[in-house]
Amino acid sequence: MPEAALSPEEGHEQQGQHAPHAGVRKAVVIGGNRIPFARSGGAYTRSSNQDMLTAALDGLIARFGLQEERLGEVAAGAVLKHSRHFNLTREAVLGSALSAETPAYDLQQACATGLETVLGLANKIKLGQIDSAVAGGVDSASDAPIAVSEGLREVLLDLNRAKTLPARLKVLSRLRPKDIAPDAPDTGEPRTGLSMGEHQALTTAQWKITREAQDELAYNSHRNLAAAYDRGFFDDLLTPYRGLTRDSNLRPDTSLEKLATLKPVFGKTLGTEATMTAGNSTPLTDGAATVLLGSEEWADERGLPKLATIVDGEAAAVDFVHGKDGLLMAPAFAVPRLLARNGLTLADFDFFEIHEAFAGTVLSTLAAWEDEDFGRSRLGLPGAFGSIDRSRLNVNGSSLAAGHPFAATGGRIVASLAKMLHDRRRVDGRPARGLISICAAGGQGVVAVLEAYPAAEGVQA
Amino acid sequence: MSDKYTQFVSRGIGRDLAGKLGLPRPVELRRYTPGSPLAPGPVLVIGRQDDSQGKEAEALAAELLSWGLDVRRNALPKERLGAIILLLDDVRRPEDLEIPMLTAARSLRDLAPGGRVVSVSRTWESAADPAEAAARQGIDGIVRSVAKELRDGATANGILLGRDAGPRSPGTLGALRFFLSGRSAFVDGQFLTVSTASGSQPGDPDKPLAGKVAVVTGAARGIGAAIARTLHRDGATIVAVDVPAAGDHLAEVANEVKGTALQLDITVPEAGERIIHHALERHGSLDILVHNAGITRDKLLANMDDGRWRSVIAVNIASQLRINDAVLGSPALPVAPHIVSVASTSGIAGNRGQSNYAASKGGVIGMVRASAPLLAARGGTINAVAPGFIETEMTARIPLLTREVARRLNSLQQGGIPGDVAEAIAFLASDAAGGISGEVLRVCGQNLVGA
Questions:
Q1: Which residues of B touch A234 (CB under 8 A)?
Q2: What ipTM is given for this predicted complex?
Q3: pTM of the entire structure?
Q4: Going from the N-terminus, what domains does chain A have, and what CATH number goes with each?
Q5: How high is the pLDDT of residue B14?
Q6: Considering CB atoms only, which of B248, B259, B261 is closest to A241?
Q7: Is B205 contained in some domain?
Q8: By CA distance, what is B264's nearest residue in A?
Q9: What is the span of the domain harbouring residue B94?
């Protein structure tokens, strides 16, 4: 076992030498709340981002008794966002039971939005700028903004500027029938025109990920998520919304056989076998998630639990435009950099939360880390970066089963992982440790390390 | 909110019409709001006029004066009275009842709408001889009859003193305040026994639960939500508990009362530990525990199945027993809390199609009686409240005619509201009720069944 290479004592020492955050205080995860995720066009069709974010926030406030509290800051965001929601998070705060004197800001980093709000706010807590914070995200694929065409938009703006009737009529005469067609958002990359699925299909084929391996990952995701619900794991992580008490995408009765019958939807023109189906890709989803963060003192003063600490985070980006790396492969670079900075290896983790944008994304990332050539030529290591114990991967399910409301996924993962770490507490004399990896549009990725909040050995905190 | 019929016959043409046709004429009840007067007029204190009793009645009158009440020892002609208090704790023979009762009789018509008749007497069990027991039990008949005679939302209730309690014990004064006030609006024809001199009067009568931490199960809606609101209004910090599937409503209630929401299935074995841990970790104590969560799975016994039977027993009584065991066994709770359980008149009088529910609610009553000594050993109390017909989402689903009949079948000729049940629970959960334990208080407007 690779664990033997690093004894606990050495691990601590090494961590101390490399720790980039010595001298700053801890940022702890106190808990989280999300609403069940709904497939788009389902239970939340008529719910706006603001409705859902407010609901998730109010559930968090109720769980931790934060009514009328002035928190340090609330940060959240949405990927698909109406222009009228320019102050989405602040509006959600004003509509919630929090003190109206709680400041808020919006953040957007595609699917990494939720995790980036956690890291940004955790940094502020560590530096002593704030004592408490709520991080989160929300997305609605059902209530997506639809824009008017560029032609119509230009006409409307000019019309507004025209002073006289003849001038207005002249502007209007420029309208053409094609200008009337609305401009709906899609998941296409602006610089390549390819959808995210088609991009991943290229990567999946490049890393020779089989259909069977992808279906097995999807099957495990559903099975693990269903088991987590059945044993009450989400009882203090989730608040029902609009009649939903569980993620509507979850199929507890799915099987490898059923998944094997689905027809491929991406990568059908690559000349290789098309392996990506609706079963091993995440569907468009609506939902919101929040995480409560605080300093140790702030949590202690209120008798609030301290589940885990936010140890460190890292962002990376790849040049997918010229085909150097796959669109969703940035975490393959971010994780090695983050672990090196913290003196850790993949063997030092008890939980891996790798966001399942597509089963192929997770498997391509793992394949890259296990590849000698990738390790040497792309990561600058003496050999392969390493492999993970697959029994520690997404143990309570991930996006393939839960669904993926883009900006909400980070909050879902951070709160769940913090609870798992708290439940595990210590492993081999050190705090239980978890790795989060989230890929994002634009060839980006954000990753983070969390540890169980230090509790003295044998103490049931 | 009272029902539409009550609103219609409470005023104007509706009132006249109902009077001419001899229809029931329920009135809108006098209910408590913070700061409202304790009684709708002066309080007449009647006691036997011989030496010892005269002193006791004087002392009680002085106590009531200190509450800001206008007190009379003798009725003034034609003066509207807010309440008549009958101090009958020294009756020895049935003949002793004559003077005080006929004194009260002359003032009964002067009782204001929403007025009160409250007797204070001793339990027959503690009587020295049969004549004394007869006199004491006679008061039971008197109060129940007067309750049926009174109109316009006025009620009659009694306080019974055990061997170790007196007319000015904290529990007696607490019960007296409760019965006089609008908090007891839907309690009629009932008795509360004060068994010990324990307890204390509140510093601020409008915040009797100040500084207390109260756990309420089934708090997401209906009566449970009303309990959470009422306990919060009285000063308590609320831990609102309900099943995870009701979490959205639970969060709304928790945010409204500025408490914490605990999504928990109370039938799981560790429910008691989870509740204790949450209350202590977040709020530092657990002073009040209200077992309100309950379900109905109605079916005639002839058609009963194991699922319906088992789930009702599991939620309504087995969980309460297990949680109480956890509370009594917890080293983290050296002082036991005030526990109040929600029973039901179905558990007293029975109800067709509710053999499972009545088993669970009768069970609650048995549990409360048997648990009282166990809690007393650690400074706690346990009581039950048995609601009659209460206007809730659940009773709104009863067919119209059945519902209309059900809500008129009591002395107040109307259904209660969830807040009425909550008020009784808030009183029994207070330190003023410290000398009251093992009791079942009906909140039913003196329902004709099972009285």
A1: 244
A2: 0.89
A3: 0.90
A4: 24-144+280-450 (3.40.47.10)
A5: 76
A6: B248
A7: no
A8: A235
A9: 29-194
